[in-house]
Write a structure and sequence with these properties.
The protein contains 13 helices and eleven strands. By secondary structure, it is an alpha+beta fold. The chain has three domains: about 220 residues, no CATH class; about 100 residues, Signal transduction histidine kinase, dimerisation/phosphotransfer (DHp) domain (Helix Hairpins, Orthogonal Bundle); about 160 residues, Heat Shock Protein 90. The chain has a five-stranded mixed beta sheet. A hairpin with a 3-residue loop joins strand 10 and strand 11. The longest helix has about 70 residues.
């Protein structure tokens, strides 16, 4: 896939995802505002209803006390009212008794009216009773007006604690809130115009009292009353935000899906770039391998032509020289083929190891003996301290030998002075530790994390004769891992590098 195609794909995915997040965020915000507005309307409606109920309860209580009587004059008026009611009942009874309807054959009903009130006709009687009712109503209305006037006059000098029963107010608020669908805990207080608290509820809800203005609702008590001593009922809800969030729980699945899409999007981008990087490394590997193969092939081809050319002298020295060239170039080809085979190992999830019980110390001694000629020919030296008391492990001899050889060969290649190579073995619990330390050019910290990646090559600075394909250490890591072991590296530039291999011994397998 072309780089431009990848960039266009990523930009398109990013724009789509940003648009999705924007729409979802806008929907969540609008939904939250709608729920909060509904909550605010319910609270304000509840507070207004509560204020009206408090005002009506005060008026009814005062009128009840006035009508039931608290002094002599009130009792007297009450008695007069009862007498008037009795007289009304007697008058109505007399009217009823005076209306006697009689009927007979060929005759019409005869009506006789009582003249106790001095009226002889029904019309006059009706007008008389209506006038009587009007007078009684006017008198009752006057009494009520006087009671209301006294009530309004007295309330001006009363304290709010005398007008409102705070204990009943708590229960009234709960009922009114419940009727309007507000069923969450609340605090309330009575304050004056200046915000001074007159009364505050002493509830312990386990939540801090909200101080933000948008969480405090206010309503004037006695809203129909014009007074200089205005008081306000303030209510706050400590769990308002939780209530709004709980009301939006249906949005959680969509939010979870967006988060999942985001994770998939990020993972997809990482995989795309890794695959792109891996593809570039493979292309570099193929190009390098092709270039490297040309040299030994052309050299062998030239040597074979020299053997066939009759013009070339066929002396023993020339045969020896040509055969030596063919042998060296053949080894070089074999080495490259081995690298290709190593790369094929990585394509398998798990390579097939032919493990058997092998003593590690003698194996390492043989490897050192075979490798020492290369080191000493360049003025180097190998020091071995094979102190492991129990060195029997289940390993694949061929692959494990390649691992040790690769690490030693890297130490020889990446050095700018005579090599001092130290190889040690020792036991730690039921594991065998093998360390290979050199005095080479070292590895920078930024490269240490990636040296075991396929096709990754560390910059060698002034060493321009080091050739490779970035597979050696990746191969080492894979083989050690499949032996149930681990490998770590310590290095400092211009000081040296130390690789430490840990593999389980046979005792560990038996456990």
């Amino acid at each position: 896939m072309k780089r431009s195609t990848i960039i266009i794909l990523i930009i398109s995915m990013a724009i789509t995802f940003v648009g999705l997040i924007f729409l979802q965020a806008r929907y969540v915000r609008i939904n939250a505002e709608m729920i909060e507005n509904q909550f605010n309307e319910s609270v304000q409606r509840s507070l207004f209803q509560t204020a009206i109920l408090v005002e009506e309860n005060e008026a009814l209580q005062y009128l009840e006390e006035t009508l039931e009587g608290v002094d002599y004059q009130t009792n007297k008026n009450k008695l007069l009212t009862l007498d008037n009611n009795k007289n009304k009942l007697k008058s109505i009874d007399s009217i009823t008794n005076s209306l006697q309807l009689t009927s007979g054959k060929g005759t019409y009903p005869k009506i006789r009216l009582s003249t106790g009130h001095g009226k002889a006709t029904i019309e006059e009687t009706s007008r008389y009773l209506q006038e009587k009712f009007r007078q009684n109503f006017s008198r009752s209305k006057t009494i009520l007006d006087q009671a209301v006037f006294r009530w309004l006059k007295e309330t001006e000098n009363k304290e709010i604690s005398e007008r409102v029963n705070f204990e009943e107010l708590d229960g009234l608020l709960e009922k009114v809130f419940a009727n309007n669908g507000v069923n969450i805990p609340f605090y309330y207080a009575i304050v004056d115009k200046q915000g001074k608290v007159i009364y505050k509820c002493n509830k312990d809800l386990g939540e801090p009292i909200p101080t933000k203005k948008n969480n405090v609702y206010s309503q004037k008590l006695f809203p129909s009353e014009e007074s200089k001593r205005e008081v306000f009922l303030q209510v706050s809800f400590p769990t308002k935000q939780d209530y709004i969030l709980n009301s939006m729980n249906l949005l959680l699945p969509s939010i979870s899906l967006i988060v999942l899409i985001l994770v998939i999007f990020i993972v997809a981008i990482i995989i795309i770039f890794r695959q792109k990087q891996l593809n570039n490394m493979k292309n570099d590997f193929v190009n390098n391998m092709t270039h490297e193969l040309k040299t030994p092939i052309s050299t062998i081809s030239l040597a074979s032509q020299m053997l066939q050319d009759s013009g070339v002298g066929k002396t023993p020295e020339s045969y020896k020289h040509i055969s030596g060239v063919i042998r060296d170039e053949t080894k070089r080809l074999s080495f490259m083929v081995e690298k290709v085979l190593q790369m094929a190992i990585f394509e398998k999830e798990k390579s097939i190891l032919k493990v058997k019980e092998i003593k590690i110390n003698p194996l390492i001694r043989d490897i050192i003996q075979n490798f020492s000629l290369k080191v000493t020919s360049k003025g180097g030296k190998i020091i071995s301290k094979l102190d492991a008391q129990y060195d029997v492990a289940l390993i694949d001899e061929v692959h494990f030998t390649n691992v040790i050889f690769n690490l030693m060969d890297n130490a020889l290649k990446y050095t700018d002075k005579p090599l001092l190579l130290t190889i040690e073995t020792h036991n730690e619990k039921d594991n065998l530790l093998i360390s290979i330390e050199d005095n080479g050019i070292g590895i920078h910290k930024e490269d240490l994390k990636r040296i075991f990646e396929k096709f990754y090559r560390v910059h060698t600075g002034n060493l321009h004769n080091v050739k490779g394909f970035g597979l050696g250490l990746a191969y080492v890591k894979k083989i050690i891992t499949e032996h149930r072991g681990s490998i770590k590296v310590e290095s400092e530039p211009n000081i040296g590098t130390k690789f430490t291999i840990t593999i389980p011994t046979l005792k560990n397998y038996e456990l």
